[in-house]
Design the sequence.
């Protein structure tokens, strides 16, 4: 049968998200979900939601939520755009700034969705190898030169490593193109770069409700940038991209700052304990600023460890590329979940 | 300030969705929302929803809903893809099948979002004028030749006119490209073209929960097509494009066939009454198969009528293009809302 798809789409392998297996009793540490439930205010927002209101379209720009976000960061709502998860925002950003003449650059390894989004646009991806310790190489900016979009997760995924703020600031100031800082994991980190989105005209900082707010199932994210960039992205946005329930629930979660602080503190404390315990067992564990750790078992091959955990109903993530295959990425679970993982790990290293 | 946007995006005016005004007491007949609330099963699905489950990602392909849709239409779930509203599916379809070498053709007037989506891709839009009665011209297929994507709303928007099934079938069979039949309003019509999506490899039929299911605020739509086309669109889909609440609520609404039949029957009955009453008052009213009517007041200018209604807190839609400016598009409301509109209309024509 003849294909009418654009050749770029026919050529595309597509992005494979982490598995969502349905086995009971599984310890699921593979997609960086938060092990704690969302804020009690989320439960109340669902319980008090008037289902009859669903007959009407939502606010196309989610202004109640945008206003709350703008207040939090001391900017105007013209600096904020909401998306159906960060994925929706990433899609808009790649459609806005990449094409066969406008390439994307990124550190490698980083979020493997970026090159897929670039390929959809027929755009080249320049993967700039990170240093041995997964920090940015000294000549990163030189290597990125000529790209129109420079995309970073910070903290980085799948490594959990956070790049130095001074380095990020220099990149934002000196890069001739859009700098996208994907702060999906920033609420678990010691610092963030949100202020750069307001200080530099060419910087976009993205956040999501999926991780720190325990709302991966809701699909809600936002980006902060200059009004000119937000305006342009608005043109590409599906008219009503965030729904009534998401807007209401997202706002309820966002306003519960105490609960966010409590949950992220628990995750950080478990992260420290897991890091120390794995190192004790001979693993190389990168210093993580995210809600996961990137850990290489003794022997330099992540696969047998990944397989062993899987056989024992603990699912983590394994990336078979050359730079990542020594490692597995382990999402921070509850303390009992991490205890189970550590008990299996002790068996494994024997 | 230098723009890093693709020139196509800088040049884009963007699509303006219908207003969502917030005045109290307003009769809102401008965006084709259903005047009746969603099924009582929707209320129950919200009330019984476990908010804790939101910490986990949703099913990326919404398989419980896809299976229910496939069962209803006697196909397999490989024939079905779900979207964050039809908008999300339209975006995927235009990204899949249009670019500077692959143009889009459509009847004119039709849904004004299509040319905006084509422009985002740098693709040309060929607008093929409808006949005086807003039916397809005899040489439509010849005029569409060479386009890679042929997009129709059926029933058409903003006219409400449905194109003959035999004509649609011939187009599906003979057009060398993708035929997209956007059946947003099909549940209000006497017939539909869903079977063509399963009989022809190049046909996509789209449906939405926004209109007939009274769930515009939820953002949920689906497309039925050949497995090869669904596979290709899946590559372009955001990984988790429909959220947990939408999947649960959508399924509950979809399974309540009795309520759907009851609501659409009420809308059709009010549509017949409104059509007759406006004709009585000297309006030209096209035969509508949708949940709105396209009606031209005596005198051949829709604008003063639109303005008069608006001054009296009744909002309808006016499209100032040459082919549409004699008309206003009036969404079918409740009977009391339509009575209010008719009372004002009687004043207006005096």
Sequence:
């Amino acid at each position: 049968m003849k294909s009418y798809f654009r050749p770029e789409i026919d050529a595309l392998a597509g992005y494979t998200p982490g598995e969502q297996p349905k086995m009971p009793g599984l310890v699921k540490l593979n997609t960086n979900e938060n092990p704690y439930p969302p804020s009690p205010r989320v439960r109340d927002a669902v319980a008090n939601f008037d289902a009859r209101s669903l007959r009407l379209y939502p606010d196309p720009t989610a202004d109640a939520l945008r206003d709350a976000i703008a207040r939090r960061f001391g900017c105007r709502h013209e600096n904020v755009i909401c998306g159906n998860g960060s994925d929706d925002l990433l899609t808009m950003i790649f459609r806005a700034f990449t094409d066969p003449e406008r390439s994307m650059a990124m550190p490698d390894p980083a979020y493997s969705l970026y090159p897929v989004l670039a390929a959809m646009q027929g755009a080249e991806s320049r993967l700039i190898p990170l240093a041995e310790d997964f920090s940015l190489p000294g000549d990163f900016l030189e290597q990125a030169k000529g790209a129109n979009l420079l995309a970073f997760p910070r903290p980085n995924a799948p490594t959990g490593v956070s790049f130095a703020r001074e380095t990020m600031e220099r990149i934002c100031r000196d890069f001739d193109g859009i700098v996208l800082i994907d702060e999906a994991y920033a609420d678990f980190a010691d610092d963030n770069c949100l202020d750069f989105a307001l200080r530099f005209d060419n910087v976009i900082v993205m956040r999501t409700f999926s991780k720190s707010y325990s709302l991966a199932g809701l699909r809600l994210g936002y980006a902060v940038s200059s009004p000119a960039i937000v305006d342009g992205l608005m043109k590409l946005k599906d008219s009503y991209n965030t729904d009534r329930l998401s807007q209401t629930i997202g706002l309820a979660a966002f306003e519960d700052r105490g609960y966010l602080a409590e949950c992220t503190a628990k995750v950080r404390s478990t992260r420290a304990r897991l890091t120390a315990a794995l190192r004790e067992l001979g693993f190389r564990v990168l210093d993580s600023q995210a809600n996961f750790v990137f850990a290489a078992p003794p022997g330099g091959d992540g696969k047998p460890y990944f397989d062993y955990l899987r056989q024992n109903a603990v699912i983590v993530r394994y990336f078979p590329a050359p730079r990542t295959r020594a490692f597995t990425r382990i999402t921070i679970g509850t303390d009992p979940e991490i205890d189970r993982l550590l008990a299996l790990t002790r068996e494994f290293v024997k």
